[in-house]
Design brief:
The chain is of the alpha+beta class. The chain has one domain (15-163): Peptide deformylase (Peptide Deformylase, Alpha-Beta Complex), CATH 3.90.45. Helices cover 25% and strands 34% of the residues. The chain has helices at residues 29-42, 127-139, 150-163; strands at residues 49-51, 61-66, 69-81, 85-92, 95-105, 107-113, 119-125. The strands form 2 sheets. The chain has a 5-stranded antiparallel beta sheet with strand order 1-2-3-6-7. It has a two-stranded antiparallel sheet with strand order 4-5. Strand 2 and strand 3 (69-81) form a beta hairpin. The protein starts with 28 loop residues before the first helix and ends with a helix. 31% of the residues are buried. The mean pLDDT is 94. The active site is at residue 135. Keywords: Hydrolase, Iron, Metal-binding, Protein biosynthesis. GO terms for molecular function: metal ion binding; peptide deformylase activity. It holds the Pfam family Pep_deformylase.
Length: 164
Amino acid sequence: MTPMAMREIRVIPDPVLRTPCDEITTVDDRVRSLVADLVETVDYEGRAGLAANQIGVNLRAFSWNIEDEIGYVLNPKIVELSDEIQDGDEGCLSVPGLWYPTRRAWYARVVGMDLDGNEITVEGTGLMARCLQHETDHLDGMLYLDRLDKAVRKKAMREMRAQL
């Protein structure tokens, strides 16, 4: 049995958060252990999603914890976003304490794979759609702050620097 661990969350300005993650080409014990750690680390009050690079691993995988459903996906790719927009406050474990209005699609669908190499589809609206987009951004080396309107982003960066 692979040991699971609650992993430490990397926070800005850690460069791993700005580095695009590598595709998973082989599901081995390292990847199984990563998924176990992602699932255990996201299973905590107030956590909606967690990307592998947020725990220092440069592989394309994330977990989610939305409405009492915990799951994961390897090599996710966004394949569909609705034209309908949601505009709510968004935060990030890697940018602690800062919440800003962030525009996201109301519906999102990602395709990826599970630990057995099977193709899976994960989709949702509202918070689940926001999570899918947010975590996929992480895997591309992007933070939600990058999506903010210019004036709001300037304010957010100022607040972020004040916390460092």
